[in-house]
Design goal:
Strand content: 15-25%
Strand order of the largest sheet: 1-6-7-5
Largest sheet: 4 strands, antiparallel
Radius of gyration: 20 Å
Number of helices: 7
Bound molecules: zinc ion
Helix content: 25-40%
Shape: elongated
């Protein structure tokens, strides 16, 4: 699953080859092919990352929304270069005079207007994205406060509260904040909420900066049974809303609700 930092990293690469370019759009998804002529001759205005979504903006108020989910990936090829993935897995192709930009195997490609996207119950209504310049601390704390009766480990994955956080980031944010994933949001002190915000901002940026290096910022994700790098206690794992999560029983304390 592509988490926010990876999505922003790829959006930056896509922007370099697409922005301002005339792109011929081809869809590999049934039901979208009919819209190809309506995009003919249009230039890409902007490529934007928002949480885990890619938003490719065209004139005439059109937005292509792409979500890679678990299996999707982007490739950028120079014109004429051989593709390293099968043509039939291409769900979206943007052909510019110099490059072919291809989204493979992604189940989610939508063509919407901005207001349709904004009002869409599944894809609109995103919480603030810590990697965007419009991230609002006030809005983050406000949306968090509305989730008082839910567990923080669950809430951090809710894209309507904060967007771009996936399983790796939520595990590491809570470990660094020394907060157990099963703690209810309503039980968190002001200091603890500030710690969560601090590590949301810090770890998303650390991941962005170290995209090509070994992820040395990962402390306990997928390290169940191994010693905690901070105190030496054995890292535990458990299921939370269908996802495996990890915690140090000593640094993060025991849950009061489990
Ligand atoms: Zn520990």
């Amino acid at each position: 699953m592509a988490e926010g930092p990876l999505v922003h990293h790829y959006a930056n690469r896509l922007r370099k080859v697409l922005k301002g370019k005339e792109a011929r759009v081809e869809f590999g998804i049934k039901g979208l092919k009919q819209f190809e002529p309506s995009l003919e001759g249009l230039r890409v205005q902007e490529v934007e990352a928002y949480g885990k979504q890619f938003r490719i903006h065209f004139p005439e108020d059109r937005v292509l929304l792409v979500h890679l989910m678990m299996w999707g990936s982007w490739r950028i090829y120079r014109n004429g270069e051989d593709w390293d993935k099968p043509r039939e897995r291409a769900r979206l192709i943007l052909r510019t005079p110099t490059h072919d930009v291809v989204a493979f195997s992604t189940p989610i490609v939508r063509l919407l207007t901005k207001s349709e996207l904004q009002e869409d119950p599944r894809w609109g209504n995103l919480g603030p994205d810590p990697l965007r310049p419009d991230f609002s601390i006030k809005q983050f704390f406000h949306l968090l406060e509305e989730q008082r009766t839910r567990e923080i480990g669950d809430v951090l994955l809710d894209q309507r509260v904060v967007s771009g956080i996936g399983n790796i980031l939520r595990v590491e944010i809570l470990f660094q904040s020394r907060i157990h994933p099963r703690r209810l949001v309503g039980s968190l002190s002001e200091h603890e909420r500030n710690e969560i915000l601090r590590w949301v901002l810090k770890l998303t940026r650390t991941w962005m900066k170290n995209m090509r290096k070994k992820a040395s910022w990962i402390s306990i994700y997928r390290k169940s049974g191994k010693p905690c790098p901070h105190c030496g206690a054995l890292v535990e794992f458990f299921r939370q809303v269908g996802r495996i999560t990890y915690a140090c029983p000593k640094c993060q304390g025991v849950s009061t609700t489990s």
